[in-house]
Write the structure tokens for this entry.
Amino acid sequence: MSNAANIKMQKPSGSLKMLRAMLAIGMISALLIVMAFELTLPRVQRLKAEALEKAIFKVLPGTVHTEAFGIGTNGALFKIENGEKPEMTCYAGYDENEKLVGYAVEAAGQGYADVIRILYGYDPKAQVLIGFQVLESKETPGLGDKIEKEQRFLDNFRALDVSLTNEGTLKNTVITVKQGEKQNPWEIDGITGATITSRAIGTIIGASTTEVIPILYTNSSQKDQTVPNQKPRESNE
């Protein structure tokens, strides 16, 4: 038998070895990826929790401590116990006198490149948004990331109107308008050159506030009404 014939007969065996080697490399790589993920997960979660806490204090100026609440399907707030992950979460901020400063609310929606996660602060007494922070974004550097850096855009959230009607619904839906065309206190003055991203912020906040603000306002009002009744009454006896 010629050398050429021998080489031809060895090809199936060689291919099988190569396939086995590729499978082994693939399995080892997958195992290393899983191990790296599991080992780094606690640190990643801790860093995210720290970043979230800093963001809450930033969107609720004057806050000294916070409490996390879930929002039930009946519209009531309930304290989140360890391990609970409600569908909707908000954070109540209190000042040094234990008075409610406001609520910080997480919201998310599609941006230009990917989903944008944000946090906004709500003052139920003034019925305005008082703070805004981007938690996660993959928008284009130098353009879309202006929503995190441009002070003129961030100034929109010093007193953005989210007041309610007598029926308890939002009077006006928050929207983003073209830069320089803001006419009303519930409008966000957009960013030229980052139009899609700044509009996405208006869409995210508009949808979230329409759903969440009536619930938070009602709960804060009920809480204010119950405070006087909780004080012990003085007796003349």
Remarks:
- The beta strands are 65-71, 77-79, 89-94, 100-110, 115-123, 128-136, 160-161, 175-177, 187-189.
- The two ends are 120 Å apart (CA to CA).
